[in-house]
UniProtKB/TrEMBL annotation:
Range of residues in the leader sequence: none
Gene Ontology BP term (one): SRP-dependent cotranslational protein targeting to membrane, translocation
Protein name as annotated: Signal recognition particle 54 kDa protein
Gene3D superfamilies tied to this protein: P-loop containing nucleotide triphosphate hydrolases (3.40.50.300), Signal recognition particle SRP54, nucleotide-binding domain (1.20.120.140), Signal recognition particle, SRP54 subunit, M-domain (1.10.260.30)
Source organism phylogeny: Eukaryota, Viridiplantae, Streptophyta, Embryophyta, Tracheophyta
Single GO cellular component term: signal recognition particle, endoplasmic reticulum targeting
Comment on protein domains: The NG domain, also named G domain, is a special guanosine triphosphatase (GTPase) domain, which binds GTP and forms a guanosine 5'-triphosphate (GTP)-dependent complex with a homologous NG domain in the SRP receptor subunit SRPRA. The two NG domains undergo cooperative rearrangements upon their assembly, which culminate in the reciprocal activation of the GTPase activity of one another. SRP receptor compaction upon binding with cargo-loaded SRP and GTPase rearrangement drive SRP-mediated cotranslational protein translocation into the ER. The M domain binds the 7SL RNA in presence of SRP19 and binds the signal sequence of presecretory proteins.
Function: Component of the signal recognition particle (SRP) complex, a ribonucleoprotein complex that mediates the cotranslational targeting of secretory and membrane proteins to the endoplasmic reticulum (ER). As part of the SRP complex, associates with the SRP receptor (SR) component SRPRA to target secretory proteins to the endoplasmic reticulum membrane. Binds to the signal sequence of presecretory proteins when they emerge from the ribosomes. Displays basal GTPase activity, and stimulates reciprocal GTPase activation of the SR subunit SRPRA.
UniProt source species: Salix udensis
PANTHER family given in the database record: SIGNAL RECOGNITION PARTICLE 54K PROTEIN SRP54 (PTHR11564), SIGNAL RECOGNITION PARTICLE SUBUNIT SRP54 (PTHR11564:SF5)
Pfam families xref list: SRP54, SRP54_N, SRP_SPB
């Protein structure tokens, strides 16, 4: 089983579980059996797989899960007021996320409101007020009152009277002492009786995620996780630790500082990112947009044979340069995003690509169509440099880039090529 298929099987199993409304023993067993099958097919040692299964069953406490993972509890009915309390360390993006969450639901027809229960940090209320005003969401807070419990109760009461159906309470993320922070959170929760407590986590905290999430879970009944700053470099693997520590699902991710840079958590691109595979579903959609219709089957056929030649790279550069806004398209394509096209440096990257193409114009057909890396010997490299008026170093750099891309794209090898009209099915297969 090639890596892409293994990744696919595992994420399919996880997806099935995350689609289930209630995670019970059967859902867990089905998921584990599916993963076990995929691992054994990939020649993973039998003992290792068996131990993994036993360990997961030991860690997962189904009694706890029944309450925490019942999504019917999380998705409250519109019309009935729900109180949602946000917790997380200062700087995690909590206040920003509260507004994003409110804004997201407002667009879906809810009537949200924001309550600032962070009386510890000067400026917290101002920040919430500013965000809320921008999004036209009612807010409540005080510059004078220092008791967060009092403020949150007053805010919740007021918005219930005003028929708001989603009342969001933003709590403090810092205190003189950690103990005081958790005690305050506990008191606010006791007084406002939230229907859901959301733990907000910065995706870059990495290994520290488990302890941090667990500390919060021990004080309040965390029922969901939101991972912020997924637009940065972090892969977000810490989110898995937070899920394990809180036994709660990730429901949204933050992908930027703006109000609408907020997405419902989707396990497929997340797992792809963790496995370093790029966003394949976005990629397949883009291939249909970027590559002219008549070239699509041919390109996919070549890729499925594992032949990512220099000519394919050239053709993709050509296609991509025709498209705009270029950064957006590139960011979707595996391998083209971070290294070749760093954000904010699209112009330079575009120039670099044009330079690569000039050098490739000096290549022979044999060189362009070969997938044998040994073909590009010293004399060929020198000829290409002379022919294109570039240095040997430039040619070497272009070939390095080709090798890097070829390695990434080789994951497409063995892919089943769809018949006409089956493109979307392929896209599903790759991401399932
Ligand atoms: P709090 O202290 O937890 O309330 O955090 P804030 O909401 O004040 O956010 C801290 C910083 O992170 C601010 O500069 C936010 O603009 C930024 N931020 C929050 N969420 C995201 C995100 O998803 N992506 C990026 N790039 N920045 C974010």
């Amino acid at each position: 089983m090639v890596l892409a298929e293994l990744g696919g099987s595992i994420s399919r199993a996880i997806q099935q579980m995350s689609n289930a409304t209630i995670i019970d023993e059967k859902a867990l067993n089905d998921c584990l059996n599916e993963i076990t099958r995929a691992l054994l097919q990939s020649d993973v040692q039998f003992k290792l797989v068996r131990d993994m299964q036993t360990n997961i069953k030991k860690i997962v406490n189904l009694d706890d899960l029944a309450a925490g993972h019942n999504k019917r509890k999380i998705i409250q009915q519109k019309g009935k007021p729900s109180v949602v309390m946000f917790v997380g360390l200062q700087g995690s993006g909590k206040t920003t996320t509260c507004t994003k969450y409110a804004y997201y639901h407002q667009k879906k027809g809810w009537k949200p409101a924001l309550v600032c229960a962070d009386t510890f940090r000067a400026g917290a209320f101002d920040q919430l007020k500013q965000n809320a005003t921008k999004a036209k969401i009612p807010f409540y807070g005080s510059y004078m009152e220092s008791d967060p419990v009092k403020i949150s109760v007053e805010g919740v009461e007021r918005f219930k009277k005003e028929n708001c159906d989603l009342i969001i309470v933003d709590t403090s993320g810092r205190h003189k002492q950690e103990v005081a922070l958790f005690e305050e959170m506990r008191q606010v929760a006791e007084a406002t009786k939230p229907d859901l407590v959301i733990f907000v986590m910065d995706s870059s905290i990495g290994q520290a995620a488990f302890d941090q999430a667990q500390a919060f879970k021990q004080s309040v009944a965390v029922g969901a996780v939101i991972v912020t700053k997924m637009d940065g470099h972090a892969k977000g693997g810490g989110a898995l630790s937070a899920v394990a520590a809180t036994k709660s699902p990730v429901i949204f991710i933050g992908t930027g500082e703006h109000m609408d840079e907020f997405e419902v958590f989707d396990v497929k691109p997340f797992v792809s990112r963790l496995l370093g595979m790029g966003d394949w579903s976005g990629f397949m959609d883009k291939i249909q947009e970027v590559v002219p219709m008549d070239q699509q089957p041919e390109l996919l056929q070549k890729l499925s044979e594992g032949n990512f030649t220099l000519r394919i790279m050239y053709e993709q550069f050509q296609n991509l340069l025709k498209m705009g806004p270029i950064g957006q398209v590139f960011s979707m394509l595996p391998g083209f995003s971070s290294e070749l096209m760093p954000k904010g440096r699209e112009k330079e990257s575009q120039a670099k690509i044009k330079r690569y193409m000039t050098m490739m114009d000096s290549m022979t057909n044999e060189e362009l169509d070969s997938s044998n890396p040994k073909l590009m010997n010293e004399s060929r490299i020198m000829r290409i440099a002379r022919g294109s008026g570039r240095s040997v170093r430039d040619v070497m750099e272009m070939l390095e880039e080709y090798k890097r891309l070829a390695k990434i794209w080789s994951k497409m090898k063995g892919l089943k090529i769809p018949k006409k009209g089956e493109m979307s099915a392929l896209s599903r297969n790759m991401n399932a």
